[in-house]
Design brief:
484 residues, Growth Hormone, Chain: A, 19 helices
Length: 484
């Protein structure tokens, strides 16, 4: 127990701290295994975009197949996060994490060796599903394995790893493709996951503690309805823009309202009968939780919006190269990781109040970009500086709100908050890409309108950041007032 006190680790029922598999004796290595897997899953989001042209040339992929190579991963990942978190609770998060990591490693191997576009699409969907399986256990592992300052530092490192994964996906992916190792062009961006995945599997097997399974708590009806509702929402948002928003996309979006209503009624019924719903209605209904999740969804939407529109603005509007476009966002993702380790050292109350402060910084970055463009300044140095300011703001509000939300739930609700946080931020990103991407394309139909369109878009993103900050403040106020 002295080790647990010293590291901030909670010694839980079912853990084996006196064995090689006990996190209490090796908390650093256990955290490395969890965050390493998160890093791989995050890198895989970016590399497919960068590898797109090479995949198209190498496999003679159609436009639809190429779209599915990129979006298939996102669709499977977003749809399965909540279910994956609950699977970890039902079967033990260590076992499910190892299953997901091993599956992701095999799926990456299949991607790298894919002989055709169809096989690559199937392998990418499998990679997204297994990435959700392992990623959903990361926050659960941190929630259950650490407490106090140690948990805050672990959550700070979680944000830092998200940043590092985005940087690696943007930069290392392009370098691997350019290196054309043994004439393999795009294949190494997936194959590199294999040796790293094997090492992380061994590390997780050695260092992650066992957790007590709670069988019979999966709520299969909730899984089916939630998966259908998320697919109805995410599929048209991911594919609609490329397809020109045909009628089926609007029909799917309209159907999400009755789908999520059905889910809410179903989960309330399960809870009323004393069962364990997939999504706990009482948890979502708590204002501090609901406002906090909404805040993070809006803040994350601004990042995915800028990720999509910046490339269009720079390449189509200003005629910059793809390499310049990729490097322009490195300042954002690098700055995103800075607040994590810093906030982890602050007292709890100060740490929580950093969320609305971060939203103010995020707003300043977007407003500064809009002002500079309206003033006629399109220099790369100013652009990257202001993107760095926005990234610093998002990193601050993300880390602070994550710490706030996980601190308001019990260990028994670790899977709930992990699934909800990951899903709402991922869905927020999909909505941000679709909504703001459509707005930008309407504002900048020709290269001559790109500067004005991007300036107007940044004003909208600034307004969204203000809304995210207001919701964060509401979440913190309600949490402090009610003791939630």
């Amino acid at each position: 127990m002295s080790d647990g006190t010293r590291t901030g680790l909670l010694v839980l029922p079912g853990n084996r701290p006196d064995t090689a598999n006990g996190m209490a004796s090796r908390p650093g290595w256990a955290l490395a295994a969890l965050l390493g897997a998160m890093f791989l899953g995050n890198v895989d989001v970016a590399v497919a975009n960068i590898a797109g042209p090479s995949i198209r040339a190498g496999l003679h992929a159609s436009g639809a197949e190429l779209e599915l190579v990129v979006s298939g991963y996102t669709l499977a990942y977003a749809a399965l996060l909540v279910t994956s978190a609950r699977l970890g609770e039902a079967h033990g998060y260590r076992r499910v994490f190892l299953t997901g990591l091993a599956g992701f490693t095999l799926a990456s191997l299949a991607c790298g060796l894919a002989p055709s576009a169809l096989v690559l699409v199937i392998a990418r969907v499998a990679a997204g599903a297994t990435a959700a399986l392992m990623a959903a256990q990361v926050l659960t592992g941190i929630q259950l394995g650490f407490s106090g300052r140690a948990r805050a530092r672990a959550l700070g490192l979680y944000a830092l790893v998200l940043s590092a994964g985005a940087v690696a996906g943007q930069s290392a992916g392009g370098l691997l493709i350019s290196a054309d190792v043994l004439g393999s062009t795009w294949r190494p961006v997936f194959l590199v996951n294999v040796p790293m995945g094997v090492v992380l599997c061994w590390l997780a097997w050695r260092c992650l503690p066992a957790s007590r399974p709670q069988p019979g708590r999966l709520d299969p009806a909730g899984v089916a309805v939630l998966s259908a509702a998320l697919l109805l929402l995410v599929v048209p948002l991911v594919l609609g823009q490329e397809a020109g928003w045909p009628p089926w996309t609007w029909a799917c979006l309209a159907a999400t309202v009755p789908a999520f209503t059905t889910l809410w009624v179903l989960e309330r019924s399960v809870s009323a009968r004393g069962g364990r719903p997939l999504i706990d209605p009482a948890l979502v209904a708590r204002p501090a939780i609901g406002w906090g999740l909404a805040s993070q969804s809006l803040a994350t939407a601004t990042y995915f919006a800028i990720l999509f529109t910046l490339a269009l603005y720079l390449q189509n509007g200003l005629g910059k190269s793809a390499a310049f476009s990729g490097l322009a966002l490195v300042s954002w993702v690098a700055a995103f990781g800075i607040p994590g380790p810093v906030l982890g050292r602050l007292p709890v109350r100060l740490r929580a109040h950093a969320a609305p402060v971060g939203a103010v910084i995020l707003t300043a970055g977007f407003a500064g970009l809009a002002a500079s463009l309206y003033a006629g300044d399109t220099s790369g140095a100013l652009l990257m500086t202001l993107l760095g300011v926005a990234g610093l703001g998002l990193g601050t509000t993300f880390t602070a709100m994550l710490s706030h939300l996980t601190g308001m739930v019990t260990n028994q609700q670790a899977a709930d908050i992990s699934g909800l946080f990951n899903t709402t931020t991922r869905v927020g990103g999909v909505i941000g890409t679709a909504a703001f991407g459509t707005v930008y394309l309407a504002l900048a139909p020709t290269p001559g309108r790109a500067i004005h369109g991007f300036a107007a878009l940044n004003l909208m993103l600034a307004a969204t950041a203000v809304a995210a900050g207001g919701l964060a403040a509401l979440s913190i106020r309600r949490g402090n007032r009610t003791g939630e």
